[in-house]
Specification:
alpha/beta, six-stranded mixed sheet, 9 helices, 6 strands
Length: 184
């Protein structure tokens, strides 16, 4: 798979993660990262106008590095499972159509990252155990550096190896402190 950040079609949609994470109504950013990514909402808007269909959902950003596609969704609101599921489904279909490659090619080379507001999802950020047996979940940097294990919330685990090869669901604080652990 070629680097889509250099693709003529996608270049027009490049923006910083910071700009893409902006919540207009709250006037806040979920990240300050200047990493250049594709504004996938704009790709979706173009896709819809080309196909003359009602608007599908899409993730906020798409990044490509070292053969891996990163689908990134910022949620500065309460997260709803069905919305997050629809966003990844629709985004994969849109990307498959735009790149003219199989869904399987995308799935085996993609990671879905949901960055959520810890303030607006307090019940999620405060969980202490993950569903994997005998694995302690702690949001501290020491845990992240030593064990590199993360909880997958919002029932996204069921889509591993079906819609993506891996997923992270993380608070904006954890994402900003450890961005290189998630986007490599």
């Amino acid at each position: 798979m070629n680097n889509i950040l250099e693709d003529e079609y996608f270049i027009q949609y490049i923006s910083s993660l910071k700009d893409i994470s902006y919540n207009k109504s709250a006037k806040t950013f979920l990240t300050n990262s200047d990493l250049q990514v594709i504004n996938f909402d704009k790709v979706k808007d173009n896709f819809v106008s080309d196909k003359k269909i009602s608007s599908p959902s899409s993730v906020d950003a798409l990044y490509y590095n070292n053969g891996i596609l990163y689908f990134i969704e910022f949620k500065d609101a309460e997260c709803k499972e069905h919305i997050l599921h629809k966003k990844i489904y629709d985004s994969i279909i849109i990307l498959s159509s735009k790149l003219n490659i199989s869904v399987n090619e995308i799935v085996k080379n993609s990671i879905y990252i949901v960055v959520f507001s810890s303030e607006k999802n307090k019940d999620i950020d405060s969980k202490t155990y993950i569903e994997t047996p005998n694995v302690y979940y702690d949001i501290t940097n020491a845990f992240i550096k030593n064990y590199n294990q993360y909880t997958i919330f919002f029932k996204l685990e069921q889509f591993k190896n079906y819609l993506f090869k891996d997923a992270y669901t993380i608070s904006e604080k954890t994402f900003n402190e450890n961005i290189s652990n998630f986007i490599k």
